[in-house]
Amino acid sequence: MSYPTFLHTFAEQLPGLAVAHRSGEWPDPQLVVFNDEVGAALGITRENICDLFHADGHAQAYSGHQFGNFVPLLGDGRTLLVGELRADRHLCGEASGAPLLYDVHLKGSGPTDFSRGGDGRAVLGPMLREYLISESLHALGVPSSRSLAVFTTGETVMRGRPQPGAVLVRVTPHHLRVGTLQFAAISGPEILRDTVRYASHRILAQPSDNELENARELLHQAVLSQARLVAQWMRFGFVHGVMNTDNTTLSGYSIDFGPCAFMDTFDPQTVFSSIDQGGRYAYGQQPAIAGWNLARMAETLLPFIGMESAREEIDSFASHYRAAWLAEMGQAVGVDPDNAGAEKLLDALPELLTRHTADLTTFLRSLSDGTTQQKFPWARDWCTTRDMCGAVPPHNPVYIPRNHLVEEALLHAERGDLSHFHRLFAATTAPFDRLDGSEDLEQPAPQDAAPYITYCGT
């Protein structure tokens, strides 16, 4: 079976940010799930993907602000960049003019120079969880990394208890993070210049020969794309959970889903991550954190663009986010934000949902189904105002990866039964269409369920 030829542009052009490694030797790799759509775009099949099971590649170096504290050297502790492939279509929600070169990553591939004492391994549950979450976000129209496959390794890995070892094959437009620029900036002006040049050609539709123009455009596009991305997260109740600068991409797509989760009951203070004790990355904090991370990006580019230009771009984030949020919520509610009274209507919704502890997804879908006043009588006045704002049919999902359903599916999968996973995956990757016999997948967790807590298993 022929196999596509990998490029290695990152390692070749940025050798100071790449360390050669070979993936682990696994006793019995077995394919668990495979994404035919992503595979077809890259020329990878169920038959030839086995060539990835023993791959040479590179671990990438980067820095990062983790919970506000700068760590000069982080890097890929258990992932491997196998290389880059050209696709025949855009895969991750990019703009139409974006390059068609994609990174192929193995997650859980074994220890690297950046493992910091860890074993570099991963286990089946968290890898299936990232596969499900990333593909569900994509189906909702949210820019996200894609998942190509998950396979078990034949190893047993200790994560509190013995669990089956597994590897996720992840596909992204690149793995260039704010933390990548931070590492380049502290590594010297030549490495920073090379990194900006490389990022420009991986991200910009029409990179310039002028370094200043490229740096300014990289920051500008990051501001725009992060504003749109976080507005989409807010619309669908997605809580990323670990918005460190090393998890913030330069072109605004979702990546690294360790402690993420979707919100049921609407509450701006919602936190799922076990390590976010102060609520830094709570649902309602996500826009502000995105702006903070972009300011850290701007700092790395000061040698090119200067303080005034950097400040101008960062100061524009709030207005870009506001416009993106109004557009997203306008579509969810079914009003044009430019209509008289629409902005006030949209601004009133979060407080209303919080006061009545409403389930966000159920409420928004009821607007699509025309059942809001029946299901949520407390929203009658708000609905009347909405109608006065020129309401049109809104577009909202029936299904999201609800946390109790995800955990149930993963528990069965670890025991060898993938039927629950496949059923949930089918619903959440066609989220706008109601499926017969799937009413249970629409329901939030029982009211007496324990608070949901997530861990950085991925």
TrEMBL record:
Keywords in alphabetical order: ATP-binding, Magnesium, Manganese, Metal-binding, Nucleotide-binding, Nucleotidyltransferase, Transferase
Catalytic activity of the protein: L-histidyl-[protein] + UTP = N(tele)-(5'-uridylyl)-L-histidyl-[protein] + diphosphate; L-seryl-[protein] + ATP = 3-O-(5'-adenylyl)-L-seryl-[protein] + diphosphate; L-tyrosyl-[protein] + ATP = O-(5'-adenylyl)-L-tyrosyl-[protein] + diphosphate; L-threonyl-[protein] + ATP = 3-O-(5'-adenylyl)-L-threonyl-[protein] + diphosphate
The keyword Nucleotidyltransferase is annotated on this UniProt entry: yes
Cofactor(s) annotated in UniProt: Mg(2+); Mn(2+)
MF-aspect GO terms: AMPylase activity; ATP binding; magnesium ion binding; manganese ion binding
Positions that bind Mg(2+): 247, 256
Enzyme class, spelled out: transferase
Keyword Cytoplasm: no
InterPro entries registered for this protein in UniProt: SelO
Residues where ATP binds: 75, 77-78, 107, 119-120, 170, 177, 256
Catalytic residue list: 246 (proton acceptor)
EC number: 2.7.7.-, 2.7.7.108
Role of this protein: Nucleotidyltransferase involved in the post-translational modification of proteins. It can catalyze the addition of adenosine monophosphate (AMP) or uridine monophosphate (UMP) to a protein, resulting in modifications known as AMPylation and UMPylation.
Family recorded in the similarity comment: Belongs to the SELO family.
Name of this chain's protein: Protein nucleotidyltransferase YdiU
Gene expressing this chain: ydiU
